Request: fold
Amino acid sequence: MRRKVQSASLAASLALLPLAAFAGAPRTVTLDVKNMTCPVCPITVRKALEKSPGVAEARIDFDKKTATVTFDPDRADAAALIKATTDAGYPSSLRP
Reply:
């Protein structure tokens, strides 16, 4: 009986941990983003990236025409991020 209680207690404790605790280390890339011409464009680019699975954060710099994206590499990759911005009308490429 004691073993069952310990297992239930462990399962309850694990359920409280955020999923990120089990994921790989986050990765950050910077994309050069084309076609951003007005102050609303960065909002559209950010929303498109944030809808992508695995994206934790997207910071858009309108002046530099870049997007800095932090994501879970087990759930996303640079190609998926580029596709997300391109599908939203803002072609992008990985900044070296």
